[in-house]
Amino acid sequence: VLMSYVIMPRFGMNLDKFFEESSQYRLTNSSILHLGLEIIELLEGIHLAGYTYNDLKLDNLLIGYKDRPQIQKNLSGNCFEDCEIHLVDFGFAKQYIDKKTKAHIEQNDVDSFRGNMIFASLNQLNFLETSRRDDLLSLCYMLIYLLNRGHLKGIDLSANLSKNQSFRQAK
Questions:
Q1: How many alpha carbons lie under 13 Å from residue 15 in its C-beta half-sphere?
Q2: What is the pLDDT of residues 8-50, one digit of tens each?
Q3: Neighbour count for residue 156 (Cβ, 10 Å)
Q4: Which residues lie below 8 Å from residue 95, measured CB to CB, with a gap of 6+?
Q5: What is the C-alpha separation between 126 and 110, in angstroms, rounded?
Q6: What phi and psi values does residue 124 have, to the nearest 5 degrees?
Q7: pLDDT tens across 116-166, in order?
Q8: Is the dihedral of CA 151, 77, 35, 140 positive or negative?
Q9: What 3 state SS string does the chain have?
């Protein structure tokens, strides 16, 4: 009997932890651009499968296990050039194509918020079904966050707010 084995990939640290550990250095625009292009490719694969991701955040992006991003102290270069980036946690992924009709689903209300409030699109914050556009908007918010060295205008991420208070602040 011939047995086949599935090799499960091993991942390194998530990007949130990476940014915490390298907080004294600033990511170059080249690094952020490269990261954005990598994430677009990951989202494209999810969208081609007929799903939206809905939970883009630094915690859900993992660096390949053997890859070690090299933070540039001179503010030039791309620290992610030789790194693989992986997207994990598909708990909020949702089909956006109707299986029977192959048409885009209608934008209806949803019961509860799904995703990450910090990088959520307006549709998510308004409890509406999401589309591919919402994933791309979340990516834009995340890239702005990185370009601003961990700050988003109008949102105080250091405040100790309850879920309801932080939801009102994000909306």
A1: 26
A2: 777 888 999 888 887 666 788 888 999 999 999 999 999 999 9
A3: 11
A4: 50, 51, 105
A5: 9
A6: -65, -45
A7: 888 988 888 888 888 899 999 999 999 999 988 777 776 665 665 554 444
A8: positive
A9: CCCCCCCCCCEEEEHHHHHHHCCCCCCCHHHHHHHHHHHHHHHHHHHHCCEECCCCCHHHEEEECCCCCCCCCCCCCCCCCCCCEEECCCCCCEECECCCCCCECCCCECCCCCCCCCCCCHHHHCCECCCHHHHHHHHHHHHHHHHCCCCECCECCCCCCCHHHHHHHHC
The Cα 161–Cα 68 span in angstroms is 35
Question: Cα–Cα distance between 111 and 114 in angstroms, integer?
Answer: 9
For the sheet containing 11-14, what is the strand order? 11-14, 61-64, 85-87
**Tokens matching residue 167:** 């939801």
- Note the pLDDT of residue 37: 95
- Does residue 11 come out as left (phi exceeding 0), alpha (psi in the -120 to 50 range) or beta? beta
Neighbours of 115 (CB within 10 A): 24
Looking at the chain, how many residues does it have? Answer: 171
CA 69 to CA 52: how far, in whole Å? 28
